[in-house]
Structure formats: structure tokens, C-alpha cells
């Protein structure tokens, strides 16, 4: 039956127009001569993948057959070529899972020649085994057929070469003979590899953990010995019985980039047993039970029935804002602004190409006062005015009020860029009767509207965590926004940051730089901060360190420079969930005057969490430069687990009560190493929400 399938494929492929022979035809002549191959092979040298233009040319050319190229690379055991092809071409372009005329796939050749590196590369790209091999007997029979036919062809060509007189035809026969001799040896090696292989050993380090109140997660490693055959998939089985009788379910894991599986839809409070087995071309190996042997789906909130802290908060705030807007719709303070919507519509409709017309009100120089600047950047370029200036508008030229409170209020307004007009209407009052603070904030709203109108966009981005001041009395509030679209604009130039920095003529001395000069010299640092503050943590459970320091007008929090929107932290594990049993153990530990190690009779999950915490605390103490012996005075925050979107959760490590917040003038005995900064608490809270 298998041989008949091969012949049908040969007939189908024979209808294809032939292509010219390969430059490497001496190596692979059998592809042109056997009649068993789907396409003529076109080879290319190592430099063919170097340039994009050349690669695209080869892609479009009929001479380039990617599937044949991949087969040759696998059969010649050329790992570099295989990786290069997988990098530059998709599985569809390579026909990765389409059998050739011999019923083989690239992965079949790799695993039957026991080429583990190539097999792993193919598996990670999504390669499968041939569907023709439905049993061990069918694979063995097919390999025997390939060996026998190749041997027969070698014998025929040998007889012809021996009996014919030397001529051009004889030389061609000798090339064919060499090609078939090479193929005969390949098939024999594949057949021997299959015959000597055995089923794989059980997977190692099979660890079971509670993923939620309705799921468990199992992670595992490859078997220590694969018995001369590459593992191509794994099977996860689960049951409520330790004997797995009856089984409740099973799943096959064939995406091997990460060896884990989450079993969902389970009943909370029920114990589930899990085991994992590995598969190679000889079949399924014996299963390996997990450690611990069972897990009970649960979540730490079940310990006291606590609801999520933020449940319904966003909806409640939206509802409250809607009510406030409704109340203010007919407010007297809106009368001066009744004609505003038309001008707002006009400003919103403007595009960035109208950024800087001659009548714009962007400032070239600063005088004593409070200003707003918006930095838009793309890669290493920055958007500037027609005069090659960063966009700056004036907020208040007589500013003398307390800056920090106004600045923190401005950062909150940055969460409502689309509501600036409405906020202006609400704050519009007689300036002769309002306070200095209210006047300043109204002027801030006016400056924001002016910047939005001149730029033609509403979203001005994220506020930098501190304003820039100079000795001339200027204060500069900076917003940052990355432009990710590949737009081109008329009358507006994207200028390389380095060019802007070198071409600008400073109007201040190096000893007393102006706020604008300070901005230009530090713009890369600010862009780096903006990019890092938008990074997200990978899923998992983390241990965070809470350290505050207070000043007269603010409280600041210690954060890492590389991730300023998150507390100083180390990762405990990849599973973010804390189970009810683990949380119960943590509560017990928190109530003790002298914490002790997990007892021997404690559950495996509790012992494992204790060991993970020990490692994480040591790592965190080193990170923030605190002597390890001081850790005995630190505490774990035991009121709740901080949950961020369900995929990231935090346990907090707190210093002794007197050291949580360093008071003004108080020396911190343990100064963190470089790589940290302190943010105003309100700025940190906004960054964390972003």
C-alpha cells in the first residue's frame, strides 16, 4: 500500500514542468534521475541568504524550491543551513509538513538519523512526523522498501558502468551511481536508527502547582535518556484517583518551546493527580507521576472569602464621572465656552502636517515662568518645529505657587487628555476671585489645549516624573510620546536627536544651563525612562521590596531604573497563583514571633514555597544592598497578595516599622547600589496603572 502511494505521488509530480539541474547536481543527482522526487533541486550558496534583495529574488524564482532545500540541509545534517532556512522562511513557504514523494518529512529524516539538534530546531518551528506512519510495522516496512529499492538501483547502475565502454553516457552513469550509493547509505542509517531505538524514559522534574481555583499547571523537563530517538511530544493525564482509574482526561503537548500544560475547568477543593509520559518514533514511554502527586485547585482569597480589591472600581469611577458631567452640563461656568466645541473640532481635525505654521505660538526661548513641552519621537528621531525647536508653550509667566502640588495635579490630568475642554469649562471662574492654585491649574489646562490645538492631536503622552528647573527661574514640564506608525508629514521634519543636540546654539553657560539646554542634553535618558516605564513583567509570582522616603511636600518610593513602574523585585516562580494552603501557611508564619522552617510533615507545596522564598529573599537583599543578617527584622506583608491583571502577583517584603519610610534628614544606613531611583508616590501609582 505504501509503495502504491509513492507511485501515485510520482505520477502526480511527473506532470510538473522540469527545471534546470542544480549547480550541486553532482551531490544530489538522484533528485533529477530517480523519478521519485517532486521537484528538481536548485541549490544556493551560503551567501544567498545574506541580503534581503537576493533572498526575495530567490523566493520569486522558479529555480528556488524551498522544500527541497530544507530536505537537502536535513539529509546532509547541515544545522546552520536548517536554522537559516527556518529563520528566513515560514513553515508554509518551506512546506514543512508536506511529505515528499517518498512519504517522508524533514522531521522523519532528522529523528531516524538521530540528529537531535536539527530535530529540535524543526520541532520548535512546528514540524510534524509523517502521517503515513500509523504504526511501528508501517514505518519498518516503508524503510525496508526504501532500502531495497535503493540497493536494487545501485546494483543496476553498477552493472551498467562495468559493462559499458568509457564514453559520455558512462560518465553520466557513474554520477548516478554515486548519488544512489549515497542515498542507499542514508536509508540504511535511517533503518538502523529506527531498529536500535527504544521508547523514551519518563520525563524528569514533573512539578504540579495550583494555577487558580479551577486549574492546575504541570511543568516538566525532557527525559534524561531518550534511548537514541528524539522525543516529539508529551502526554499529560489527570485523574481523581492515584491509580488513574478511571482517568478524567488527557492532552498531548506537541509545541516543545516550553514544556508546561495548564489543566482547566477543574472543581475547586478537589484533589487531582497528574502524570506525564514522553513519545518518540517507537511509541509512548512509561508515565512519571508529578511532585507533589496531587494538587487542589484554590486561590488565597478563599482563605477568608475576600473579594478582589479593584472589583467594580473602574465601572464605579466611570459612573461617577458621568454623573459629574451631567450635573455640570448646564452650569453657568459653561456659558463662556458654548462656542468652544467648534474650535475644538477644528483643532482635532488638524494633522501633524500643520504643526508649525508661521503664526504658531510655540516659543523659541524661555523667560522666567512655567512652561509645557511635548516630545514626540520615533526610533532615534524627534519631532521639531519649523525653527528646529522642541514644541514649547507657556503656562504662566508669573508662576510663584508651590510647584509639587500643581505638578502632581498635572500628572493626574494627563490621564484625561481627551477631557481637557470639559475640565476647562468646569474650572472657568473669575480669575480675580480665585486662588493662586486655581489660577495656575486653569492656565495649565489652557496650555494643554494650546499644545493639542497646535499639534492637532489630543494625546500628549506620559508626563516625565520630575520637572526641569534652572537658575533663571524657568520650570519645564515634559511629556513624552512614542510615534510607532510609519507616517510621513509635510512641512514637519523628523530630526535625528544627535543632530538637534549638536546644531542647537546654547544661550546659557555650562555652569548654569537653561531648562531647554538641560532638556536637550538629557533627552536620551528621558526617552529611555519612557520606554522602560511601559515594559511589563513576565507572568509569575514576585517578591517586592517597599521602601519609602519622605520630604516636606512629598513621599518618594524606591524603584529600579530598568523598570520604574514596578517596585524593586525578584521573581519567585512562574506561577502567579498563591493557593489557599500556601496562604494559610504564610498566615501561620506571620503570626509567629520567630518564624521557623516548614515542618517535615507539611505539604510538599508549602515546603516548596518556603524554599522559593528563601532563595528570593537572599537575592532581593543582595539586590538592594542590605546585609543578609538584617533580613531577620524584615516582614512579609500578610494582608493580601498584590494582583496585577491575573498574570503577575506580588508578595511584599517590608523593612522594620521604623525603617519603612525614611524621614527628612534621616540617613539611610543601606544605600542601594546604582541602578535605582526614587519616584514621587503619585507618579509611581500612575505608572503602575499604565
From TrEMBL:
Disordered as annotated region, ranges: 1-26
Protein origin, superkingdom: Eukaryota
GO biological process: establishment of mitotic spindle orientation; regulation of establishment of bipolar cell polarity
Record-linked Gene3D superfamilies: Ankyrin repeat-containing domain, Immunoglobulins
A GO cellular component entry from the record: spindle
Pfam families in the record: fn3 (PF00041)
Stretches assigned to the Fibronectin type-III domain: 202-299
InterPro entries from the UniProt entry: ANKFN1, Ankyrin_rpt-contain_sf, FN3_dom, FN3_sf, Ig-like_fold
SUPFAM superfamilies: Ankyrin repeat (SSF48403), Fibronectin type III (SSF49265)
Protein name, as recorded: ANKF1 protein
Organism encoding this protein: Chauna torquata
Gene of this entry: Ankfn1
Amino acid at each position: 500500500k505504501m509503495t502504491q502511494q509513492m507511485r501515485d505521488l510520482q505520477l502526480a509530480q511527473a506532470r510538473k514542468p522540469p527545471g534546470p539541474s542544480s549547480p550541486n547536481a553532482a551531490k544530489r543527482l538522484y533528485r533529477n534521475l530517480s523519478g521519485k522526487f517532486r521537484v528538481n533541486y536548485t541549490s544556493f550558496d551560503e551567501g544567498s541568504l545574506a541580503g534581503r534583495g537576493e533572498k526575495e529574488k530567490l523566493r520569486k524564482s522558479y529555480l528556488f524550491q524551498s522544500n527541497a532545500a530544507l530536505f537537502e540541509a536535513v539529509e546532509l545534517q547541515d544545522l546552520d543551513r536548517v536554522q537559516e532556512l527556518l529563520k528566513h522562511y515560514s513553515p508554509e513557504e518551506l512546506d514543512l509538513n508536506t511529505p515528499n514523494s517518498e512519504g517522508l518529512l524533514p522531521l522523519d529524516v532528522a529523528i531516524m538519523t538521530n540528529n537531535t539538534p536539527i530535530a529540535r530546531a524543526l520541532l520548535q518551528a512546528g514540524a510534524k512526523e509523517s502521517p503515513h506512519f500509523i504504526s511501528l510495522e508501517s514505518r519498518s516496512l516503508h524503510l525496508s522498501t526504501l532500502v531495497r529499492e535503493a540497493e536494487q538501483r545501485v546494483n543496476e547502475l553498477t552493472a551498467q558502468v562495468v559493462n559499458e565502454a568509457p564514453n559520455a553516457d558512462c560518465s553520466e552513469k557513474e554520477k548516478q551511481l554515486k548519488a544512489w550509493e549515497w542515498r542507499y547509505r542514508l536509508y540504511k542509517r535511517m533503518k538502523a536508527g529506527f531498529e536500535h531505538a527504544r521508547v523514551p524514559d519518563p520525563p524528569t522534574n514533573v512539578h504540579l502547582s495550583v494555577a487558580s481555583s479551577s486549574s492546575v499547571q504541570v511543568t516538566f523537563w525532557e527525559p534524561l535518556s531518550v534511548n537514541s530517538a528524539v522525543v516529539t511530544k508529551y502526554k499529560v493525564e489527570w485523574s481523581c484517583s492515584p491509580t488513574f482509574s478511571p482517568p478524567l482526561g488527557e492532552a498531548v503537548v506537541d509545541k516543545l518551546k516550553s514544556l508546561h500544560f495548564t489543566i482547566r475547568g477543574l472543581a475547586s477543593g478537589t484533589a487531582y493527580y497528574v502524570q506525564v509520559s514522553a513519545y518518540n518514533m517507537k511509541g509512548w514511554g512509561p508515565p512519571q507521576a508529578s511532585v507533589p502527586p496531587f494538587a487542589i485547585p484554590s486561590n488565597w482569597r478563599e482563605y477568608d472569602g475576600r473579594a478582589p480589591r479593584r472589583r467594580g472600581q473602574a465601572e464605579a469611577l466611570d459612573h461617577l464621572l458621568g454623573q459629574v458631567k451631567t450635573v455640570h452640563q448646564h452650569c453657568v461656568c459653561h456659558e463662556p465656552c458654548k462656542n468652544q466645541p467648534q474650535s475644538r473640532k477644528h483643532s482635532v481635525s488638524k494633522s501633524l502636517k500643520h504643526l508649525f505654521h508661521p503664526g504658531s505660538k510655540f516659543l523659541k526661548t524661555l523667560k522666567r515662568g512655567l512652561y509645557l513641552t511635548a516630545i514626540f519621537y520615533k526610533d532615534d528621531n524627534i519631532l521639531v518645529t519649523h525653527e528646529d525647536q522642541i514644541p514649547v508653550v507657556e503656562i504662566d509667566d508669573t508662576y510663584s505657587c508651590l510647584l509639587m502640588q500643581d505638578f502632581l495635579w498635572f500628572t493626574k490630568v494627563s490621564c484625561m487628555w481627551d477631557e481637557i475642554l470639559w475640565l476647562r469649562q468646569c474650572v472657568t471662574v473669575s480669575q480675580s476671585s480665585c486662588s493662586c492654585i486655581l489660577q495656575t491649574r486653569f492656565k495649565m489646562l489652557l496650555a494643554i489645549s494650546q499644545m493639542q490645538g497646535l499639534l492637532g492631536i489630543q494625546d500628549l503622552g506620559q508626563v516625565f516624573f520630575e520637572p526641569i528647573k534652572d537658575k533663571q527661574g524657568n520650570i519645564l514640564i515634559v511629556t513624552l510620546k512614542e510615534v510607532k506608525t510609519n507616517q510621513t508629514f509635510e512641512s514637519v521634519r523628523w530630526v535625528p536627536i544627535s543632530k538637534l543636540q549638536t546644531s542647537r546654539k546654547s544661550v546659557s553657560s555650562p555652569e548654569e544651563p537653561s531648562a531647554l539646554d538641560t532638556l536637550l542634553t538629557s533627552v536620551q535618558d528621558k526617552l529611555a525612562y519612557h520606554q522602560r516605564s511601559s515594559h511589563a513583567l513576565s507572568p509569575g509570582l514576585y517578591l517586592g521590596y517597599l521602601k519609602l522616603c519622605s520630604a516636606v511636600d512629598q513621599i518618594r518610593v524606591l524603584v529600579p531604573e530598568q523598570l520604574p513602574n514596578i517596585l524593586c523585585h525578584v521573581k519567585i516562580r512562574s506561577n502567579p497563583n498563591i493557593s489557599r494552603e500556601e496562604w494559610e501557611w504564610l498566615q501561620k508564619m506571620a503570626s509567629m514571633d520567630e518564624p521557623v522552617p516548614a515542618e517535615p510533615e507539611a505539604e510538599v507545596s508549602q515546603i516548596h514555597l518556603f524554599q522559593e522564598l528563601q532563595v528570593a529573599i537572599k537575592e532581593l537583599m543582595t539586590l538592594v544592598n542590605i546585609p543578609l543578617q538584617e533580613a531577620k527584622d524584615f516582614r512579609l506583608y500578610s494582608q493580601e497578595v498584590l494582583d496585577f491583571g491575573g498574570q503577575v502577583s506580588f508578595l511584599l517584603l517590608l523593612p522594620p516599622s521604623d525603617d519603612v519610610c525614611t524621614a527628612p534628614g534621616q540617613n539611610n544606613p543601606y544605600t542601594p547600589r546604582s541602578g535605582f531611583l526614587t519616584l514621587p508616590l503619585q507618579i509611581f501609582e500612575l505608572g503602575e496603572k499604565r
